[in-house]
Amino acid sequence: MSNLSNFNPPRTGEAKLTSGFFAKRVDNYVEIIKNMENALLEENNAARLLNFGIAAGKIKGKFYMNEWSDGDCYKFIEGCSNQYAVTKDKKILDIINKYIPWIEATQEEDGYICTQVQLTDLKRWAKPANHELYNFGHLFTASCVHYEATNDDRLLNVAKKAADYLCTIFIPMNTELGNFGFNPSQIMGLVELYNITKNDNYLKLADIFVTMRGTKIGNGDQNQNRVPLRDEYKPVGHAVTASYLYAGAADVYAHTKDKRLLTALERIWNDMIDRRIYITGGASPVYVGISERGDRIQEAFSDEFNLPNRISYNETCANIAVAMWALRMYNLTSKATYGDWMENILLNSGISGASLDMTRYFYANPLSHRVNERIKPTFEQYTHVPNKRFYTFDCWCCPPQLWRTFTGMPKWIYSITDNGISINLFAGSSLNTHLSNNEPVKININTNYPWEEEVKIDIIEAPCNGMNLTFRIPSWCNNATFNHKPIESGIHNVIVKTGEILNIVLPMKPTLYTANPFIEQANGMLAVKRGPVVYCLEGCDIDNEISIDELAIPVQAEFTEEIITELPYNMVGLKSELIHRPKGNKIYYPVIEDDVQKVSVRFIPYFAWANRQESDMSVWLPRA
């Protein structure tokens, strides 16, 4: 196969979800939007559209938390714009159009726009934790998506004016502000703005924000400032800020071809997937801790192989940010590892933060939960541990992150290069685009993946001489077929023409996984996957009222597949019989023989936990 590179996402609206799991997640988009809008208008929510209304002089009030509120409002607008692009539903446009005038009126004459500064006594560029660049970055991205979806340039003009202002502050590189890339959504945003406007200063500034890392230590590893990015060899610190940095650096590399940048990103990635990532794709175990270099860290990557389950943090935003980085690396390198982990995250830890109807949320995503032994949020250590899903919250960044991810899923599914298309994920969807030579391309994918194994790809229109089609057979599948012939896992490239129908079959069976013994928290334990989906056991799916902590999985366990009827989307559940292993009541006790009694249970997809009554939950269970 050829090693194709420099794939890019389609323009907003060129691809859309048509059927299957991801399409169903946004079927109720009007309810989701109304629910989110109402939360963003709540007085005491931590992300508030109200702050723009106050700054614009349209409503009375004072600024209310958090410093990153503006950015989370922009993410909401981005998600709405994604959905408008494919539905053309005027109800969505009416909602967006309520708030663009507020944003326009908030912007100051020189281009600065951050309500946490404008409505308070904070000074511009006083400290990195004020999240100014985070807010700018999400403005840039939302404006590009909104412009592509609507051809309305009002928000884009706000973004360009704001970016021009940033150029006056950070070009040439401002060493005094060297640690101000705190939560660097602005790198991705600037590259997206460059792609639309072709203003070279925006790309130059994005590169400067990458190069700034390590020029001023600040809080060190917490925000990736102890080592210059091009010299780094492992992921460190806050997992959102790190993954946004790595994703943004990948965007910069796509244009500059700075080999040191790509080499560093590959080193960091390999260290992460070899030592610091959960089976679900979660990547930030640490609430509060110390980095391997001695810096205080929060919401962070862990020491190597330190992956606790019940107290794992795994912020939803971080999980999705790692997937964003993976997509960019996949587009740059066509290496299967990036696609495999991207898919793993998007079907597990990346979406477990949302209830199945997308109206309630989790911030953290542990792999174990106990109703009667909840982790108590003492000091900073477990502030966001989930006991039940929230509507409003004191850090409301994850709901709009989930929203823009689900509505933006078509851009994850397809990528485009000069001479072809890449199908990055299998989902019921369609693509209607043009290659760089203006040749039209139309593709339909019909599948109910990941619940069913068959994928049909209909090439409705392709260039007369054919085109390259790249697709990935996931690493978990060892007996796939392509057009009824065996095909190995990995990246494949074929030439396709108009009228062809491609058939891919990815046989799935429940499989037991174990962990590297260095991961002490999972040593001697097993987890269940079916295809790309990680499963968990909830207490309400255990017969005979036996505790989840009195169960063990036999290596020879057999599983029966069934549709989970009490939850939506016709998801596949896994029935099995586990060993009853009675436990003592003290911290240590003599071994108790396993009971001959078998216990009937049903496993459900991990992302679907906490959608019924509150129950005990585990991904990992002891090996019998």
Automatic annotation (TrEMBL):
Key word ATP-binding present: yes
GO BP field: carbohydrate metabolic process
Domain Non-reducing end beta-L-arabinofuranosidase-like GH127 catalytic, residue spans: 16-409
Domain Non-reducing end beta-L-arabinofuranosidase-like GH127 C-terminal: 511-622
Keyword ATP-binding: yes
Name this polypeptide is given: ATP-binding protein
Alphabetical UniProt keywords: ATP-binding, Nucleotide-binding
Organism from which the protein derives: Vallitalea longa
Molecular-function GO terms, alphabetical: ATP binding
